[in-house]
Amino acid sequence: QVQLVESGGGSVQAGGSLRLSCAASRYSATRACMAWFRQVPGKEREGVATVGTDSIISYADSVKGRFTISRDTRQNTMYLQMNNLKPEDTAKYYCAARWGGYCPLDSGHFLNWGQGTQVTVSS
Fold first, then answer.
1. 3-58 confidence digits (pLDDT tens)
2. What is the chain's Cα-based Rg?
3. Which residues neighbour 82 within 8 Å (Cβ) at sequence distance 6 or greater?
4. How many angstroms separate the CA atoms of 25 and 106, rounded?
5. What are the two backbone dihedrals, phi and then psi, of residue 29, each rounded to the nearest 5 degrees?
6. Helix, strand, coil shares of the chain as percentages rounded to 5?
């Protein structure tokens, strides 16, 4: 089991930027498949971006060109840089980790989750 702690959420106006961080309690966590998801009340958790053990990165179509996922294994931390934010990006953002080569944008495959951080984008 690994503990994941998100930070960096907040309120911004449309067009603004935020950087989310996810600190992992185990060194090996940042060498696992790690991902960002988001959820709006009443809706299913949506995959945002993943970075695999092979460093291959995937993004949801809705965030391509605006969001960048990265990780620093020395700091045991994963990041999500969010630029040109839109009101529809408003959600609670969660980081997640799983071990193994499979790294999907599907929340059902992840067992390790952080507590989430709220992002609110106003128009």
1. 999 999 999 999 999 999 999 987 777 778 999 999 999 999 999 999 998 889 99
2. 13
3. 17, 18, 19, 20, 63, 66, 67, 89, 119
4. 23
5. -60, -40
6. 10, 50, 45
